[in-house]
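#random but structural
TW: two for the price of one
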Amino acid sequence: MIRTALWTAFLCATAGVQAQSFTGTAYALDSDRVLYQERHELTLEDGQPTVEQVRYVAPDGQLLAEKNMTYTELARPGYTLILNQPERTERVEPDRTGVNVISRKEGRLDWPDQTAVIDAGFHYFILDNFDALESGTALDFQFLTPSRLSWIALSIEPETPQGDQLVLQLRPQSRVLRWLVDPIELTYSRSQQRLLQYRGLTNLPNGDEGNFKARIVYQYPETAP
């Protein structure tokens, strides 16, 4: 009787928990040469992301980095990024009034007046505003750059939808920076609201050459929503 009651309680407690796995394969911008692969393990409770682990793996199987994220707020997750090449740890801890950062610089930033977005939270910011983007509305927000301990003002600008695809351009709000920085291009499925491809500067260091620039193609299991 006790065992049955405990098992029933366990099933009730875990009924709303779901695990998803998907990958992102990063290719060189000008060829089909594989640079690395992202291996995502996402946990959801009642359909909402709660935690996510991302492993960055080289073509030879070497682990380049590992990131563990906690989604207290979808657009502003906390995370720890452990880099193996070069060896370095980056930690971002948001709270009610701001965010604590440990990276190349260490300190604290208050939340900006404009909407604040952290790391992979940009994906959920996009999903939360998907209808507006589909209708052609551009969105402005502030994106955290931990290595510089600062916010950068960015805009998401939609192109005219083509079939099932919605292409978004991620650019600096500053006109000067727009001349200096290439945009990041994001391609989404309109029907499934999934990220299909990311093209541009990534958040993964490439030795002494800055961060990788890549075309990342995402693949999801057929059972994923």
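TW: number two ↓
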Amino acid sequence: MTRTNKADSVPSRMVRLQNCLINYQEQAQEINPLDVEALWQASQYEQMILERNRWRAWAANLEAKKEELQRRVGEVERRRVQEAEELEEENRELEEENREWRRRMEEVNEKSLYYFTNNFCIYFNFLCK
């Protein structure tokens, strides 16, 4: 058992313990707000990172949609060009066929004119005899 001085009476020990407790609480208050601030800053940083990642994902999705739309527009343009070329080819073929039919009609008209003129002359000669 240790000896205690008279100065170490119960009331003086209580005062010393209270002072130690107050000192401890003051130290805890000084430390904890810094920890809370650091935690708050860390959570803010994490939120900023999450927000940045969300925006990057959104931008990547927009970029992917843009590329998909550009690809589809390219396909539509290629189909339009191909259809236009096919229509031009078909138009050339129809124009050629039309020219052929006109040429034949002219031949028929010439032959029929020749035939009727010849027959008219024959008929007229027959009448005149």
